[in-house]
Design brief:
The chain is 35% helix and 26% strand.
Length: 318
Amino acid sequence: MLNYEMFMEKLRETILNVSGWSEENVTFVPKEDNKFGEDRLEIVCIESATHVGCDSLSTVGIYQEYLNGMEIRAIAEKLVIEVRKQAKSRLFQAMIQIVDYEKARPLLFVVTESINNKAALEKCIHKTVGDITLAVNVNLIAAGKNMIGLKVSQELLNIWEKEPEQVFQDALENSAKMFPARHYDLLSALISGSSYDGEDFMNEDCTEILSDGLPEKCISTLDFNHGSVAIFYPGVADKLCRYLHTENLYVIFLSVKGILVRPAKNEISAEELKARVERDRRDSQNSTDRLTNEIYYYDGKKHCIRRADGEGDAFQCR
């Protein structure tokens, strides 16, 4: 008889063997890291374009089945069957719901993509900013920390009878509500670990939040893998400028997950900043989720974000 920790490790391994799902799609989430107050097994099931889903399962009942004599493989096989069945049903219901724009609108959000991700962007609604793309998605299914989104296509726009600009603005405003912009202090993150959620600098007086003395501030979102989109939210860049006592900002896209911002002043040029960032990236040898190698610039007078070298399209902030 295995103890709880060993059981969960063996169960996860068996689920992966039975299902063929990717390792990152079957995760154990302790109660400290979720809103349910108990340990969860979170599963993302992606097997085809018409068979996707995600689930968040309590591990208490699962472990009790094992203590009652059920074999680990039998438990794993039962869970895989249940998740696949639920995925098909939930996807069907989700697709019915999003046909109605009034029901779909609260589910819209924006993600950042590399402009080179042409296959994913070919038929979806998006805007280009330099060598970054902002793509509109709709939240189909969510469970625990997992979410499955669908890129909004021209076909959906035709069904909704909406213009791309309106849908994009609705999605951007939703993103700011669903995944609020946060400031992350590096020292606090090291001390607190996964329990650190950053600071809400948009809804509070952020004088203290942004006054750590460091020239660069890390901005991302709460529980959102595409945290770099936060700089495009309405009012975010302006508020950062106001509290950092600057009119313009340099924006460094660390990855799709977050950015660094710093005042655009004479002590460092965009070219010097780009060279430094490139050295740091070579040293880290980690290109996971990289979005761009370019430095971006927020123009406080024109209220727009563009590449610092002026190449490509600019994004007009609101």
